[in-house]
Amino acid sequence: MFIISSLILSLGWIVMLPSNAQAQYSNSNLCPVDGYVSINSTITEGVIAEDELLVVFEMANDSSYMMAGFSVGVGVYSSPESQVPDFWTVLPEQVNISAKSNYSIPATLDISALPAGNYTVKVFVNQGDKTSVLGAAIRGGENNSFSLTKTSPQNSFTEMNITVNEELSRDKVVKLNPGQNLVVEVNTINKNNTPIIGGEIILSLNEGMVPLGGAVSKVVSNKTSLIPNTQKTTKLKDKLGPAGEYTAYAVLITDNTLQPIKKTEILVGAGGGKITWPYISLVAISDFPLQETSELIACVDYVGAYEGVLELVMPTGINFSTTNQEENTFKQVSNLGGGTEMFFKTVPGISATQLDLKVALLEDVYGKTTISGEEPEWVKGESDNFLTETQTVSISTDCLEGGLCKDGWEKPETVYVNSIQNEPESESFYFYIGVILVALLLMYLMLRRLPPEKIIEKDVFHKDYLQ
């Protein structure tokens, strides 16, 4: 039985804006949104805990825009200088937050997978799914960290091993050739005495180190449950492009539970290759409920070499798709033909109290055009459709009668174009039998530890004995 220490943590302000956010008011090229979403977590001293932490997160939207689809990721680092967390989780809630408002998220974090020792904890907020939140954590940025001292030994054991083309990766760089077929597998083993129910294994492959936007090549997500001493293999297949440097990440996400994260680096050819990738850094709605004059804004930034630049340097665009109860709209905006602003916006021209919004990032992934819209000589005469979707952010939000907008959990998500979202697995008959057998075994062991009953003899007095 776990020893539980419950602490209320108020943590510092962690900001979800590109690194150039401080300059946005003085440069018309930058994101025009007049604020940002942050997560409040102040703490003045270190935290001592055993297997559980009770955490309250306070999110704040200080802008005049409605924003949606935010997820909260929590990373635990053995060293405060580490870029990739050693343990990771993403809270099950995704948050829609109105303009000039706050939202509280209480959570009990299971840290039993951590060995005893000293750690640094960092919290991140980002629009999108679990892969994009991990990308925001690895990318870094402003955040307030706090120290954690775990006093109890490790009490949870889940092992994950990554193989690349059947070669086991153990903290080494795997070398492959350009154009080679790639198979990345992660083997997840439940070494605990209790089952893992409702977990999600996420395996991602990206160029460079940060899984954001156009850098993400493919994501495989498997819903899974594991009885003790069983394993699950998750497989990602791809075909490698030109020379470059790639990274694969694997993590098991279970509700509010910190689990170890695994990564492996893949060197294709002599390395080098692409050095920067765009990504959607923010999606905002000027008014909600949506009016006919409301604007949709998507801000774009770079990860890699061009991070923090003040203008777009590559052909880029956004597809805006909206659906309400009555109609659909579609608008495409790009910088082909000129334009270096770090954002794209559109006016759908509809009114809605319920809205499904899809915002897709467009890139010239094959190098067929320029930011001026001119075709290189070698592609003249080909199709004009040079831009390809590489990332989408999908958001669902609604308002109740009277205009009261629902904040908090909805169903927004980020989906990468090359992602595979496997259907949730229906558990087999043998899984449930296994769970029952484990429960019976635990009951038997508990009964064995009880002291034997004392037999007390009593005289039985029965009325029939009366004479």
Description:
This protein is mainly β. It has three domains: 14-150, Immunoglobulins (Immunoglobulin-like); 158-268, Sandwich (Immunoglobulin-like), CATH 2.60.40; 278-421, Immunoglobulin-like (Sandwich), CATH 2.60.40. 6% of the residues lie in helices and 45% in strands. The chain has helices at residues 130-139, 429-448, and strands at 14-15, 37-40, 47-49, 52-61, 67-77, 87-97, 101-110, 117-127, 146-150, 158-164, 167-169, 173-176, 181-190, 196-207, 216-226, 231-239, 244-253, 259-268, 276-285, 296-304, 316-323, 328-334, 343-346, 354-363, 388-398, 408-409, 413-416, 419-421. The strands form five sheets. Strands 3, 5, 6, 8, 9, 12, 14, 15, 17, 18, 26 and 28 form a twelve-stranded mixed sheet that branches. Strand 10 and strand 11 form a beta hairpin. The longest helix has 20 residues, at 429-448. The protein is globular. The protein starts with 13 loop residues before the first strand and ends in a 19-residue tail after the last helix.
